[in-house]
Specification:
Length: 180
């Protein structure tokens, strides 16, 4: 019996919409599990990758130092790394803050919020350090494939992973490729 493809997923500065879209493959998940085994992922609740996995899917871009650390470590464990969705590919919605100084964003969110008692900007040293700008993941690690969309549809995940599991170069039909 052919060895199953080892797949890991992680979420950085994203909204989990890409993971939700992946789950929209619905009952095809059972067929996928025949050819793929899920390693580290919010879907399995496994927190650390095995020594080496075949495919790593990354949702979300980089908005803080912890994202950068997580991404570098994830890349080290993945033979093939895939940027999934607009946030991973170009920063997406979180990168809309890049046009505004970080200090102004924090003041707007925490000090100017209406109805908050004793407003203050969180400064606990355990909180990950925010980056001045939100970055796409290709600025920090090598990316092998991108799955565009916000989010990519379930059919994109299905086609991409089943192509790889069958040993084919992934080919997405034009009608599946969209950027919204
Ligand atoms: Fe959410 Fe869209 Fe970003 Fe995916 S690409 S994490 S759906 S905002």
């Amino acid at each position: 019996m052919a060895e199953k493809l080892k797949v890991a997923t992680t979420s950085l500065a994203g909204c989990f919409g890409c993971h939700m879209s992946f789950l929209d493959i619905d009952e095809r998940l059972l067929a996928l599990c025949e050819v793929a085994a899920f390693d580290r992922s919010p879907l399995t609740d496994i927190k650390q990758c095995s020594e080496q996995v075949d495919i790593g899917l990354v949702e979300g871009g980089l908005c803080n130092a912890e994202n950068v650390h997580t991404l570098r470590e994830f890349r080290n464990h993945c033979k093939i790394l895939v940027a999934v969705g607009a946030c991973a590919i170009n920063g997406g919605i979180p990168a809309m803050r890049n046009h505004i100084p970080l200090e102004e964003c924090l003041e707007e969110a925490y000090l100017d919020a209406v109805g908050v008692v004793n407003p203050q900007i969180p400064s606990d040293p355990e909180l990950p350090l925010l980056l001045n700008k939100v970055h796409p993941i290709h600025e920090v690690v090598k990316v092998d494939y991108v799955l565009p969309g916000c989010p990519p549809s379930a059919d994109v995940f299905w086609k991409f992973l089943t192509d790889l599991a069958a040993g084919r170069e992934p080919q997405l039909p034009t009608e599946l490729v969209h950027y919204d």
